[in-house]
Amino acid sequence: MRRIADSELSARMNRSGAVLIEGGRRAAAEIKRGASEIDKGVKNLLRLRDSVDRQRMPPPSFMMVLTAGEYGYRRKDGVFVVPIGCLKD
Fold first, then answer.
1. Hey, what domains does the chain have and what are their CATH numbers?
2. Can you say whether the dihedral through the CA atoms of 53, 46, 4, 1 is positive or negative?
3. By three-state DSSP, how is residue 31 classified?
4. Which of 17, 20, 24, 84 is the least buried, fewest Cβ under 10 Å from its Cβ?
5. pTM
6. pLDDT per residue over 21-41, tens digit each?
């Protein structure tokens, strides 16, 4: 996995990241400090997904809000909420 500088994705994301994963797929992530900001991060990711020019590139394969919270889960809208502690090791 590597970080990409995709001008179309980067222009639409604020304090977020886009990564290229094997097979040419893309993922999108927002970083939020607390649980109270998760919905804002999800809203940004869903707006990004809906604004991608599907003629030029597919939508993100998955979307994630990385947070300082304690619990990880997948929301009904398909966005993953992942505590930063899950990324260690």
1. 2-87 (3.40.1350)
2. negative
3. strand
4. 24
5. 0.75
6. 777 788 889 998 888 999 999
